[in-house]
Specification:
By secondary structure, this protein is mainly alpha-helical. 49% of the residues lie in helices and 12% in strands. The chain contains three helices and three strands, in the order H-E-H-H-E-E. It has a three-stranded antiparallel β-sheet. Strand 2 and strand 3 form a beta hairpin.
Length: 84
């Protein structure tokens, strides 16, 4: 095998993983946020890698809610609270 002994660099993290990490880190530091503010903050965070679509960010937020990383605040459908 001609590639024997050559160590390949691991592939870069997927875009979704970076976006998830940005959302969780932002929520962890702020505890509660409006959805639009969270989307803006996370978009700035990953902007050096790629420009996320708002629909994509909202979908990842819904996945994080399902995974119990955050929840919607009672009485305000646009406000999110950090859980994890």
């Amino acid at each position: 095998d001609p590639n024997f002994g050559i160590i390949k660099a691991p592939p870069p993290p997927s875009r979704n993983f970076r976006l998830e990490a940005a959302l969780v880190m932002t929520m962890k530091s702020n505890k509660t946020m409006e959805t639009k503010d969270l989307i803006m903050a996370a978009s700035v965070f990953v902007s050096k890698f790629y420009k996320p679509d708002v629909k994509e960010v909202k979908k990842v937020i819904e996945q994080l809610i399902a995974k119990k990383y955050m929840k919607r605040c009672e009485g305000s459908p646009t406000k999110l609270s950090y859980l994890a």
